[in-house]
Amino acid sequence: MKLLTTANPKAQKSIEFGYLTGILHLAPGRISGHEMCPYRSVGCTNGCLNRAGRGRFNSTQKARIRKAQLFHDDRAEFMRQLQADIEALSRKAWRMGLKPAIRLNGTSDLPWEHICPELFERFSNIQFYDYTKWPRRLRKPLPNYHLTYSYSEDSTDGEIRDWMADSCMAIVFRKSIPETYKGIKTINGLEHDLTFLHKPGQIIGLLAKGPAKNDMTGFIRSDEFYHRIKLTSN
To answer: Is residue 231 one of the residues assigned to a domain?
Structure first.
């Protein structure tokens, strides 16, 4: 069973920037019977991209569940396959004249630096990166593992400033990506998925897709949301 995929449209855009990206997609939340996103919020859960793109196919969903179950039921075999996939992707990248990059949490939020720290040592020449909702993960990042904090409807202004001292923050907007948000510069995150190329202290703006477009929790940000809350609270 192949664990990594390079078929993600956003990952494909990375080629234009000199990287070949492999993404590990595991069934998120508790879909597999195991919690894969411990810090997920209601808005994040409801608007998850798990069923976007190829994720809408039952075959894809079954594959992600099998991968998540293998991760829990036979960790040694899972890690053997993952390392083999990383080696294969790395060879392919060099043949193409590209740099390899690996995203381990395509549809999950696991602390890989604690699960398998030796993975980053073995592949020290490869850039790993992820989005996360674990604030404590941002404090001691590994040299080749970049983490971007993922905004949720529970995030406070104080927390945003604190987390962004060490990271960028990804925020999903409803209709358009603003130039700034709360006075903080916003980057167009639709151009590529290579978050490690951005400097800390900036917002990576994304746009809502699928069920996330109907979010009413505050996970998806927009002026329309603020206006609706103001009217409701009066």
So the answer is: no
Q: How many domains does the chain have?
A: 1
Q: Which of 3-12, 51-60, 82-91, 108-117 has the lowest mean pLDDT?
A: 51-60
Among residues 23, 27, 49, 45, the alpha carbon closest in space to that of 36 is found at 27
> Who contacts 82 (Cβ-Cβ below 8 Å, separation ≥6)?
3, 4, 24, 119
Distance (Å, rounded) from C-alpha 21 to C-alpha 110? 19
In this prediction, residue 167 carries a pLDDT of 82
Query: What are the C-alpha distances in Å from 108 to residues 123, 226, 233?
Result: 21, 29, 34
Q: Which helix or strand (DSSP H or E) is residue 48 part of? A: none
**Is residue 52 included in any domain, yes or no?**
yes
Quick one: DSSP state of residue 218?
Answer: S
Query: How many helices (H) and strands (E) are present in the chain, helices listed first?
Result: 8, 10
CA dist., res. 203 & res. 212, Å (int): 19
On whether residue 94 sits in a domain, the answer given is yes
Neighbours of 6 (CB within 10 A): 15
Question: Is 233 within the bounds of a domain?
Answer: no
Burial 11-48 (b: 16+ CB within 10 A, else e): bebbeeeebbbbbbbbbbbebbebebbeebbebbbbbb
**Model's pTM, two decimal places?**
0.89
Domain ranges, residue 100 = 4-219
pLDDT digits (tens, 9 = 90+) for 162-208: 777 778 899 999 888 988 888 888 999 999 999 999 988 999 999 98
